[in-house]
Amino acid sequence: MTSTLTASKPHNPLLAVVITVFNESDNILPVCEELCTVLTDLPPAEVIIVDDGSTDTTQQKLLEAKAHLLPQLRIIVHPTRMGKSAALRSAIRAAHAPWIATMDGDGQDNPAFIQTMLAARHTYETTHGVKSPAPLIVGVRRKRRDSFSRRFATRFANTLRQHLLHDHCPDTGGPLKLFQRDLFLTLPHFEGLHRFLPALMQSYGAPLICIETQHRARLHGHSKYNNINRALVGIFDLLGVLWLQKRTRPLPPLSER
What is the pTM for the complete model shown? Predict the structure, then answer.
């Protein structure tokens, strides 16, 4: 069950910036401050942050951000931790905007690249026409600011995933992504979904566009994910996505006569 602390609807938003957090009390205010500096260059946007069962003061910091930085901020709270994919789904279901931009709340993502992703989408639509399938734009982190063990685990997972799924995405776990809300909600939901968006969305006909983005060190604290546990779960997820990929048959556009 989720609760919404603030749910004021922005006026006709075209974009929803979605952030999911768990115990990021030291990071979320600086992230919101930086996001404020780029919102004026974006289309009308709502900001939705999901507190996924934090046990620190993240929720209080979000209320501070709402009061002093981001009046358009909508805060969704999971009473217990449900996982990143569930948190993303909660935010995207609540969004009013047709386009979703995702990023992390630890300070490693530069929100200025949201504008770069929007420009890539505009270029695609100009070239292919607005009636062509909407693309998925993924930010690829070329210079990772993580520990060696985390970089090694990610490189191994990316190599295995690309070999089996052929999704042509060198960094599917990059938090910076831009996609259509309706397409995301069409996908089958499971925890770990966020790591396989390129493969699944391409199965539904979405073209993939990769752009290089900046990756920075965390502002404070450490990652909440254990490399070994994530790798073991990821293997089972990978096999499941491979099955889904082979069984997916998107419905054609309806035609009445």
Answer: 0.82
In whole angstroms, give the CA distance from residue 117 to residue 235.
29
The confidence score (pLDDT) of residue 146 equals 54
Pairing of strands 99-104, 177-180: antiparallel
Only one residue has tokens 């309706």, namely 182
CB atoms within 10 A of CB 208: 17
| Alpha carbon of residue 19 to chain centroid | 7
Provide mean pLDDT across the span 192-221. Answer: 87
160 contacts 231 by C-beta, under 8 angstroms: no
Going by C-alpha positions, the residue among 228, 111, 235 that lies closest to residue 178 is 111
Q: Which residues contact 158 (CB under 8 A, 6 or more apart)?
A: 170, 171, 172, 173
Specify the pairing of strand 73-78 against strand 3-6: antiparallel
Q: Which residue has the tokens 């992230």?
A: 31
Q: What is the average per-residue pLDDT within 194-208?
A: 90
Rg, Å, the chain Cα set: 18
Closest CA to 19 of 43, 44, 54: 54
> CA-based angle 196:197:200, to the nearest 5?
85
pLDDT in tens, 37-59: 999 999 999 999 999 999 999 99
CA distance 130 to 10: 25
pLDDT, tens digit, 9 for 90 and up, residues 120-130: 999 999 999 88
Specify whether the backbone of 23 is left (phi greater than 0), alpha (psi in -120 to 50) or beta. Answer: left
Is 193 within 8 Å of 200 (Cβ atoms)? yes
Q: 211 and 169 in contact (C-beta within 8 Å)?
A: no
Residues 238 and 164 sit within 8 Å (Cβ to Cβ): yes
Count of other CB atoms within 10 angstroms of residue 257: 2
